[in-house]
Amino acid sequence: MTATETAPFEIQPRQTYTPCREGGGRRFVVVKVDGDRAEVWDPFGGPRGLGSSRWVAVRNLHASGTTQHGRQRRTGYRLLSQPTSKWQELCGSCMRWHDEDDMAVIAHGWGHSTCKPCKAANDKRYGAQ
Ligand SMILES: [Zn+2]
């Protein structure tokens, strides 16, 4: 290990990832890590949009969207959010973890809840229900 290398980045369940490149894929949450691959869950994936899980290679998951040389990554996924307590809920719209108080809708299953900022944005876009 050289002096410029930082501590290894650890991939853990409940972290969410977003494509390094805009339009490079869909966001997902890590379910579990098994060796060099991770099982991930996309809350709105699958043919009916009800969620789907798949495996991705751990080497495609990065701590940030830039390399240690400051270059923009064009492939793989970068860390978006990770919970700071086990009581937090995952918003399926922004794929970020929030305290329960920040949630507008809490639904069963990862990523089917909605945070207050996303709910407000949706209401603005589609008209309040
Ligand atoms: Zn949200």
Question: How is this structure best described in words?
Answer:
- By secondary structure, the protein is mainly β.
- It has two domains: 10-82; 84-129, no CATH class.
- Helix content is 9%, strand content 30%.
- It contains one helix and ten strands.
- The chain has one helix at residues 116-126; strands at residues 16-19, 28-34, 37-42, 52-57, 61-62, 77-81, 89-90, 97-98, 103-105, 114-115.
- The chain has a six-stranded mixed sheet with strand order 4-3-2-1-6-5, with no helix packed on it.
- β7 (89-90) and β8 form a beta hairpin.
- The longest helix is centred in the C-terminal third of the chain and has 11 residues, at 116-126.
- The termini are far apart.
- Bound molecules: zinc ion.
- Zinc ion (ZN) is lined by residues 91, 93-94, 96, 115, 117-118.
